[in-house]
Amino acid sequence: MPSAAFFRRLRYLLNRRRFDRELAGDMEFHREMAARAGSGHFGNTLRLREEAREAWGWTWIDRLSQDLRYAARMLRRSPGFTVAAVLMLALGIGVNVAAFGFFDLVFLRPMPVRDPDTLLRFHRRALQSYAFALPHPEMAFFRENSRTLSAVLALTPTRLAVEGEEKQLMANFVTANFFSELGATARLGRLLDPARDEAADAEPVVVLNPGFWQRHFGADPLVIGKTIRLNDKLATIVGVASSEFSGLSLDNPALWLPITQQPYFSNGSRLLTDFSANGSVRMWGRLRPGFAPRAAEAELRSLAAELRKQYPTGVWKNESLPSDPGGYAKSLLIADRSGTGTEGRDDLFPVFALLTTLGLLILAVACGNLGSLLLARGVAREREIAIRVAIGAGRGRLIRQLFTESLLMALLGCTAGLAVGYVVLRSLMLFTETPAWLNPAPDWRVMVFAIGMGFAAAILFGLTPALQAARPRHRASIVRQFLVGAQVAASCVLLIVAGLLGRALTHAVSANPGFEYQQVISIDLGLARHGYSPARAQAYLDTLQSRLRVLPGVESVSLALSPPLGTRSEGAGLSIDGRALNVQINRVDPQFFQTMKIPLLRGRNLMRGDSHAMVISESLARRAWPGQDPLGKKFTMGEDYTIVGIAGSARLVKLEDSDSVEVYFLIGTADLPAMSVLVRTSAPPEDVARSVASTTKALDPGTFPEVQLLKAGFRRKLRGAEASALTVSLLGVIAHLLACLGIVGVVAYAVSQRTKEIGIRMALGAQPGRILSLVLRQFSGPVIAGLLVGVGAAAGLSSLLRGQLYGISNLDPITYLAAIAMFIVTVAVAALLPARRALRVDPLRALRYE
Q1: Residue 680: which H helix or E strand, with range?
Q2: How far apart are CA 651 and CA 515, in angstroms?
Q3: Taking the mean position of all CA atoms in its chain, how far away is CA 251?
Q4: What is the Cα–Cα distance from 312 to 15, expressed in whole angstroms?
Q5: Which contiguous run of DSSP H or E holds residue 559?
Q6: Fewer Cβ atoms within 10 A, N terminus or C terminus of the chain?
Q7: Regarding predicted confidence, which is higher, 549 or 847?
Q8: What is the DSSP string of 427-482?
């Protein structure tokens, strides 16, 4: 029976040393008995013992153990080769581990919250509109009436003026069940409590971020019970959160406060009662046991329809509330986007596709380099291999032994690669100031991935040299040429991509983005947070603009709903004649184009009373109506609008995306409380900013406007591009260096293998140029082929970067030519250095060379 055979083999495995001794004794006894009986030769006892072990099973463990011990001895005998091989693998695997670790953090690893798989993030969807935040009254209605959700959580981010801080700090107003539902613990004191902190007579309280507590209060353990002044209002500190608490936010807020107390800190705020976009909150829900996300979505859709009967202008027609998994970091990247049409493409997947491809290219270069070294090492071990064949080793046995050495190297490489990947990911996260709760330490998924990459690398760099061990040498030469071509192609792709990102960054700094930002000050008034009505906001804005225009050094003043280089934007995904367009929408006053120095190319400016007129960017006109005049045409975005003007293309929000197009509408009455003010200065903006801030604050001391320079926002926008360019450039340099080292090694090996031939040719009078041509000719074909393949692959891969190149084409000829020229020069130098050895060959010594 199979089970009986298994247990018999298991018994042998556990007692195999005793069984081997008994078998040897029994065979010796029977051999002696056969000799006494004169029955002839007993047979080869060693072969019979091997056959017995085969019958018992598990002999593969012995063979594997032997192979591993032999492989370890061989690696110890060549410490230089071993260290170089492990470092190459650590680099190739480590880059991929870092990329997968990032993917794991965002998509696969749950956040440190209680029951993350039951947490859902909801957003609004209607036929022509979407928003990833919803009105607080709607959220409260769902919380009170939902039966599929055991709890509803919400937060709204804002900035508060904190006593003792120069700049306003990010704070999150949250529902009082926020901490308890997420399973958070307090480092000091207590966290928010629904029974105590949502009562009508509850005193204002605040929970501190541990980083803010350490910086502002010097980690004072007696801070609990003290008061802190926020927006000139006192609040009692009741606790300090733990550093592991995610807070369902990537903004790293300094403070958490009860959402019911938001009107206390923002005078006149109607957040709790306002159905407009100015009263929106982010909403999560926790599923009750036994319910699926679809059931919750269906229930919320019916509840929204019921609420619309009471508030027909506050709830959208046919509103639905789709959900996303809320316990993963990906749900936090959505922020508060809103717009019309489709929700737009997910920008994360092209980023991960690019990272994955670049990581695999690095691994390919490292494996190609190592494969070339192993081929050369295999030729150097021809004597050893020949002896093993002579004493009976089969080709399969040789391949298994050599491949075991590669597997052992891969195991060492993936162990070192885990450390390299952690260091790389940790460094990038520190550079980009990601929250502390995002822990880059590898989990089981990353470890399994590293092991899988190690095994794949062993196949890539080890199997082919092992198969070549018993084949004719000319085939090994073909394999070496293929590996050289692969290294050249991979490193060429990395160089071109790095060049594109570097040139894009240089272009972003030096080129005109379509508007002039250096002399502009942006003022985020936050009137909506203080409950300003449209009429009151209109009076406030008129007075403020008149006062700002008379300040010394002020050139012009204008209004915009989405200030340039800010974080607030409104978009729409449209399709025109089958072409998908990502449209950025802005609502501005007629002075906006003058303030931002955006030229009006054709038609006229917006004028007061233009309720159904729009100005479009030249890029939209070119893409939507190629070869036509769009002036006077109708453009449908929920309603029909007439195009009255064409302005210059200006990437006001998505600075990096050359495919982004813009449309401008006149400010509507309902938009006034959300307006930002833009001030262009003729003097240095740093000198004018202080008087602008004091003038704005004096108009209503109860508000807390945020004043910043647009050039500071420009620098923040470039921070991600700087990190990307630095990372890819480093990868490109490393890959190119590895490829050059591989070419040096392969050419040097070729010279050593043809020393006798070179000596004969030199003795017969061959010229030095002819000798160099002889050595280099066999590698020129693989290098040229690899270069062509690399350029083609870079052209295809760079299409993923179209939205990150700041106006540079992904087929930019300057970048391609510069990368190719750099590659050719360095590869030529790398090949000539070892090839020159051929010119120093002594013909007499070469003729005696073996």
Answers
A1: strand 676-681
A2: 8
A3: 17
A4: 81
A5: strand 554-560
A6: C
A7: 549
A8: HHHHHTT--TTS--S--HHHHHHHHHHHHHHHIIIIIHHHHHTTS-HHHHHHHHHH
Closest Cα to residue 503, out of 801, 287, 270, 716? 801
pLDDT per position as a tens digit, 23-48: 777 777 767 777 677 665 666 666 66
State the Cα–Cα distance between residues 134 and 123, nearest whole angstrom: 7
How far apart CA 247 and CA 112 sit, in angstroms, is 10
Residue-level pLDDT at 812: 84
Mean of all residue pLDDT scores within the chain: 82
Tell me the mean pLDDT in the region 491-496: 83
Write the Ramachandran bin of 344: left for phi over 0, alpha for psi from -120 to 50, otherwise beta: left
Q: Which of 555, 123, 503 is nearest to 337 (CA)?
A: 123
Specify the DSSP element, H or E, that contains 602: strand 600-603
74 compared with 772, residue with greater pLDDT = 74
* Dihedrals phi, psi of 782, to nearest 5 degrees: -60, -35
Task: Please say whether the dihedral angle defined by the alpha carbons of residues 460, 464, 467 and 470, taken in this order, is positive or negative.
Answer: negative
Q: Which residues sit opposite 340 in a β-bridge?
A: 129, 572
Give the pLDDT band (50/70/90) at residue 69: confident
- 119-122 and 323-325 as β-strands: parallel, antiparallel, unpaired? antiparallel
- Of the candidates 561, 495, 195, 199, the residue with the CA atom closest to the CA atom of residue 361: 495
Contact 453, 460 (CB under 8 A): no
Q: How many CB atoms lie within 10 A of CB 762?
A: 19
Q: Which two tokens stand for residue 44?
A: 């080869």
Q: Per-domain residue ranges for the chain?
A: 2-57, 58-93+348-475, 116-326, 483-509+714-850, 520-713
Please answer whether residues 174 and 259 qualify as being in contact, where contact means their C-beta atoms are separated by less than 8 angstroms.
Answer: yes
The number of residues making up the chain comes to 850
Q: How far is CA 597 from CA 17, 91, 648, in A?
A: 88, 48, 10
Angle, helices 79-103/395-431, rounded to nearest 10 degrees: 50
Buried b / exposed e over 611-620, threshold 16 CB at 10 Å, is eebbbbbbbb
pLDDT at 472: 47
Q: What is the rounded distance in angstroms from the CA atom of residue 734 to the CA atom of residue 91?
A: 9
What tens digit of pLDDT does each residue of 632-676 get?
A: 988 877 778 899 999 998 888 777 666 678 999 999 888 899 899
Q: Which residues lie closer than 8 Å to 514 by C-beta, 6 or more apart?
A: 598, 648, 649, 650, 651, 652
Q: Quick: pLDDT tens for 548-577.
A: 999 999 999 999 998 988 877 777 766 666
Categorize the per-residue pLDDT at 845 as very low, low, confident or very high, splitting at 50, 70 and 90. low
**Confidence class of residue 166 from pLDDT cuts 50, 70 and 90?**
confident
